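[retry 2/3] thiamine phosphate synthase: previous attempt timed out, resubmitting with same input.
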Amino acid sequence: MVSYCRERLLPIADIITPNVKEASALLGGAQIKTVAEMRSAAKLLHEMGPRFVLVKGGDLPNSSESVDVFFDGKEFHELRSPRIATRNTHGTGCTLASCIAAELAKGSSMLSAVKVAKRFVDNALDYSKNMVIGTGRQGPFDHFFCLNKNLQSSRCSIFNPDDLFLYAVTDSRMNKKWNRSIVDAVKAAIEGGATIIQLREKEAETREFLEEAKSCVGICRSHGVCLLINDRIDIALACDADGVHVGQSDMPVDQVRSLLGPDKIIGVSCKTPEQAHQAWKDGADYIGSGGVFPTNTKANNRTIGLDGLETVCKASKLPVVAIGGIGISNAESVMQINAPNLKGVAVVSALFDQECVFTQAKKLHKTLKETTREM
Ligand SMILES: Cc1ncc(COP(=O)(O)OP(=O)(O)O)c(N)n1
Ligand SMILES: Cc1nc(C(=O)O)sc1CCOP(=O)(O)O
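[retry 2/3] thiamine phosphate synthase: success.
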């Protein structure tokens, strides 16, 4: 059985998710008692063929944390969560693997799928830790805990593709023109319905930008909205933003991931199916695709049109947000390409080159809602 797995299954698997005992068996009885040994095991297992390896550390002795090691062939990520003391752990492995498969089917990258699945299992374990069912050494846990209406919904920091619905991208030049601070602009956009914010401040000095970014992080957190930083990984780290957006000539996504770690959101601009494919391989969480229409906001930007957007959406498993020349008058035509992974529109001037950011955000949000309800 083990040799069949090694020879026939591992070479064709996208991901394998052994616990430490299973990893040890696959490696002919190797000792795996530390996180360092889990990393070595993940590397050796990867050499047997699967594209990704997740070695699960739930059984690791003497640890207050549950540490899983994720390896994509280049980078290791240690996914940590507090260990939940319970005997109700029967079925966790199958649930984790099924949840990864479901997230992949929804279009997530492998790392995002694994993070969502780990969070789901952790929440389920915590919710059902005190249940008493049967008298065996191990009890079952509650896979359907999400259906319990009395359960308090806690916002999890994991990226939700639906957050791309109305994506507000700031521009300091526009906000200066209308005599308002970035912080006021961000607040108005959120109150009007923006579902995610990106600070794209091309002209700001680093120190000033960092101070503004810190204030915006506070505002976004208090509204439960994610904040990303355009291009500047240093600023994102310093202000503890939720992630970054990078372009094709910025730092490559896999390098960004190794600097930011597994928990941050990474978006990447893609105009072609090849770029979209690479984004997925490198572990991006979403794609920004445009210019859908001509724009005055970004100089020399190539317009790919609605056809180009559709081509990128079709080529990709990742969630996509459309960008470039989008506003209230044409948002409907964008969403009507009706690609299941097109999650929303990203706009700059439609919100920020306007007298009232709040009103414009509200109007655009309403338009998007009406459009998507009809589809
Ligand atoms: C959501 C979103 N999509 C695309 C872009 C463009 O990013 P990039 O290619 O890095 O260009 P600049 O923004 O740096 O001019 C974006 N910012 N956001
Ligand atoms: C920042 C940016 N990126 C684009 C891309 O095509 O990748 S278009 C763009 C500017 C979008 O501004 P507006 O909403 O004012 O047209």
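[retry 2/3] thiamine phosphate synthase: Confidence is low (pLDDT under 50) at residues 151-156.
[retry 2/3] clearing retry counter.
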